[in-house]
Amino acid sequence: MLRVGLTGGIGAGKSTVANRFAEHGAVLVDSDRIAREVVEPGTPGLAALAEAFGEDILAADGSLDRPALAAKAFADEESRKRLNGIVHPLVGKRTAELMAEAADDAVIVHDIPLLVEGNLAAAYHLVVIVDAPVEVRVRRLVDVRGMAEADARARIRAQATDEQRRAAADVWLDNGGAQDAVLAEVDALWADRLVPFEANLRLRKPRPPMSPMIAPYDETWPQQAERRLARLRLVAGERLLRADHIGSTAVPGLPAKDVLDLQLTVPTLADADALAGPLADAGFPPLEGEWWDDPQDGSAAPWPKRLHVGADPKRPVNLHVRTPETPAWRLALLFRDWLRANPAERDAYAAVKEELAREHAADGTVADYADAKQGWVNDAFGRAEVWAAQTSWQP
Ligand SMILES: CC(C)(COP(=O)(O)OP(=O)(O)OC[C@H]1O[C@@H](n2cnc3c(N)ncnc32)[C@H](O)[C@@H]1O)[C@@H](O)C(=O)NCCC(=O)NCCS
Ligand SMILES: Nc1ncnc2c1ncn2[C@@H]1O[C@H](COP(=O)(O)OP(=O)(O)OP(=O)(O)O)[C@@H](O)[C@H]1O
């Protein structure tokens, strides 16, 4: 099952987007709704709230007086934390139960207002954020929902900043304009990304191979890599020694094929094999066959590794799982750091890549392109080693 985390500030349009996903066939898990269920009359949740905030948060019929609790809970940080401490564990438990009930081929859309605040992004295959400017959100909450303006602003203050949401977003949906516009984006996201992503995940199928087209440096590459590394750290757990963004997309200013190279370091290949299933479930199926890094001078036997590929059709990822005793593991880190520290070498490398990409665009073969590039890279390793010695570089 594909787990999509859907979030955004209050009034941004999460429910609007979530309902459209549901129309397409997504299984919706709605945190606000669960948060209501766990404090229904007669529940231990409601009793705990009354104990913590006083009987005056109860209406005459014994149900929760939501505006009364909101007034107390959003008044200060300590009260809000007390509220969260009571409700969130109950919501978490019920959420896990609902997710476990979903079919293997489900696309779960989890509408969760506090995904960023709770630092939960790594638990999803993809995080979708709905956004609209603060003033637009306040207007909608006041005019359409009938919320008091001060209440709307108090909740906005209690939530994540735009910058924090940007860092967590794999997909950013702008709902500052007409509803039709955001719904059209949702339709495209469903058809072009979520449906094939779910199928790739279930069938453990990598996305199709990349063309050798070189893209200009994208300054969001490091953040995109970091979000995937966070997911990988979560599933790899204690077997993981370290997780790094390597390759050309890890070098600021370097044009590159738009594929993120990530390296997981594990003690032994047996650890890599034990992780094959969990990595596949997290959206990184293993590529079939045996994979080796070739020593550049041809002197030693090739170094074995495991290779996984991202299942997300819109975010190509090559995931190299290596052990620290292979020289390829160390070279991946050295080459990256050397290029980062030496802009002239980086620019020379960019020129070589662009020249080769032009030549191979005609025949369209990625393998030939990679072979030709390796010549420059092998020479560069020599210069990188000199730099490593001079600067006492350590991986
Ligand atoms: C305080 C309560 C009773 C007020 O109820 P009300 O009907 O006015 O709001 P509702 O529950 O529909 O929430 C509307 C929106 O408020 C924001 N919000 C709600 N709780 C919180 C919170 N603890 N911190 C920050 N924002 C919150 C979210 O954007 C949410 O989508 C209610 O919000 C609540 O029980 N909150 C605690 C549970 C919670 O954190 N829910 C959010 C995700 S699990
Ligand atoms: N593009 C839009 N133009 C105008 N109104 C909109 C638009 N999108 C959503 N709305 C309206 O704004 C209000 C807030 O939207 P919605 O309920 O989807 O937000 P939400 O993020 O789920 O809110 P909450 O955080 O309270 O759960 C709703 O009344 C909705 O009908």
From TrEMBL:
<dbReference type="Pfam" id="PF04229">
    <property type="entry name" value="GrpB"/>
</dbReference>
<dbReference type="GO" id="GO:0004140">
    <property type="term" value="F:dephospho-CoA kinase activity"/>
</dbReference>
<dbReference type="InterPro" id="IPR001977">
    <property type="entry name" value="Depp_CoAkinase"/>
</dbReference>
<comment type="pathway">
    <text>Cofactor biosynthesis; coenzyme A biosynthesis; CoA from (R)-pantothenate: step 5/5.</text>
</comment>
<comment type="function">
    <text>Catalyzes the phosphorylation of the 3'-hydroxyl group of dephosphocoenzyme A to form coenzyme A.</text>
</comment>
<protein>
    <recommendedName>
        <fullName>Dephospho-CoA kinase</fullName>
        <ecNumber>2.7.1.24</ecNumber>
    </recommendedName>
</protein>
<keyword id="KW-0418">Kinase</keyword>
<keyword id="KW-0808">Transferase</keyword>
<dbReference type="Pfam" id="PF01121">
    <property type="entry name" value="CoaE"/>
</dbReference>
<comment type="similarity">
    <text>In the N-terminal section; belongs to the CoaE family.</text>
</comment>
<comment type="similarity">
    <text>In the C-terminal section; belongs to the UPF0157 (GrpB) family.</text>
</comment>
<keyword id="KW-0963">Cytoplasm</keyword>
<keyword id="KW-0173">Coenzyme A biosynthesis</keyword>
<dbReference type="InterPro" id="IPR027417">
    <property type="entry name" value="P-loop_NTPase"/>
</dbReference>
<feature type="binding site">
    <location>
        <begin position="11"/>
        <end position="16"/>
    </location>
    <ligand>
        <name>ATP</name>
    </ligand>
</feature>
<dbReference type="InterPro" id="IPR007344">
    <property type="entry name" value="GrpB/CoaE"/>
</dbReference>
<dbReference type="InterPro" id="IPR043519">
    <property type="entry name" value="NT_sf"/>
</dbReference>
<keyword id="KW-0547">Nucleotide-binding</keyword>
<keyword id="KW-0067">ATP-binding</keyword>
